[in-house]
Amino acid sequence: METIAIQARCVTETRWAGIRRFGTIFRMDIENDFRNPVLVGYNTVLAVLLILIMGSLVGGLFADQSDAFAYYTITFCVFGMLMTCTTAANSFMERDIRRPNLRIIHSPAGAFPIHFSKTLASATFGYICHVGLLLVVCPLLGMSLGESPLLFVALMAPVELASAALGTFFCCVFRCEETTNMLLSTVVELMSVLGGTFFSLDGMGDIIAGLSAASPVRWLDDAFFRLAFDGDAALVMPVFLGAVAVAALFVAGSCLLFKTEDYL
Amino acid sequence: MNELLSVKELEKSFGDKHVLKGIGFDVRPGEVLALLGPNGAGKSTTINIVSAALQADSGQVLFKGKPIRGQIKTYKQRLGVVPQDICLYEELTARRNLSFFTSLYGLHGDDLEEAVDRALELAGLADRADDRVKTFSGGMKRRLNIACSIAHDPELAIMDEPTVGIDPQSRNHILESIGDLRANGMAVIYTTHYMEEVEAIADRIVVIDHGSVIATGTSDSLKNDYATSDASLEDVFLKLTGRTLRD
Predict the structure, then answer these.
(1) What is the pTM of this model?
(2) What torsion, rounded to 10 degrees, do the Cα atoms A221, A222, A226, A227 define?
(3) Range of the domain at A242
(4) Model confidence at A65, in pLDDT bands (50, 70, 90)?
(5) Which residues of A touch B121 (CB under 8 A)?
(6) In angstroms, what is the C-alpha Rg of chain A?
């Protein structure tokens, strides 16, 4: 075997080194999400199919078929944003990703970039998928996002971030991808049913209406519906601030609970 | 002699289980130190503490005379850890894996490319650099696993059973590579259950069992002290740690 001397230059840590390193890890995490065909399919093709199927099946309950498609475009977009939490769990704990992450723990990067980068990357991945979904579905079904489409897509960003932060936080609590995914899926699906994602609960009595009003999915749906159909931005700021606060809370929780030992 | 690394009186418990009971040893620059012990002896915990991934309950790890806790980033910059598992992105090429992991140590641009090329040569994978890792054999993955840990030219490498489950050719290549790294001044802490590997590459041996160091020395000195000069290292190891089956 030929003797090779390893003579890489010793690099002194600078203030920018940490930022550059975080950027490198973040890019890799985004790539990993996009390389996963299940994640990409779930967040794009499946969502389009669900909108088309539900819009067609339940169209008779709406005044117009196009109203049904518009309704399900927004509710499934919100549902997709909330399910970004499972993308984060997958990115964080999936075996093929988890092992290389061990090297990040051993590198000077330390622990924080591992969980925070997964949160940020999952939110970005979900955001790109769901904005892409709207770009395809809206022209296809002839619907618009109202007078402020940019405000609509801007409001999606903090919701994606809050959802991804929740997924990462659950991983730090339960330390198991399967348990985390099962719990997150159950919680999001329950909230979505109550929020009227799959079918409207209006007119199903006071108790159901009360439960529906308590679901955060309903609040999000209301904010996006009012923005798209009524040009009403009154709920934009509360949703924006609420989502940012939730994201900050869960990121802080992840910082407290994430233990490198769990990766060893 | 100036020690590169000094491990002093490490204590660690997990719940009621007292795993490390005052482990201590030194590593000198350019030396290969074999850390031996049966399963459950405390090797992995020791390695995790020495690699700064786990905190000891008490005791110290000194790098160039200073506690690593006060200089974690600097210490990790000069450390390379070869995990027991294959820790690679299977969907990426060998070059991309090396490039990503090495860039975490602050290398970029031409320095990064040079380091990656040298590591590929060291691993004997230059001709497969642009192939995806998932197409590699077990031996090739093991070699790349090591290359990803030492491409940034650390002063100290910790190798946790780096030759598990590979063919004799790849094992021979890895052992020769470690010899080359040592010749270039890199110190190595090496754990394995293969005694012939220890005899081939280790300058000194530390045997631990039940969380304590039970013997230290060269292969020859251990044989002289604990068996006969014509005994094998495995005989010595079994004499020191017993023949009772471990978990």
Answers:
(1) 0.87
(2) -50
(3) 2-263
(4) confident
(5) 2, 4
(6) 21
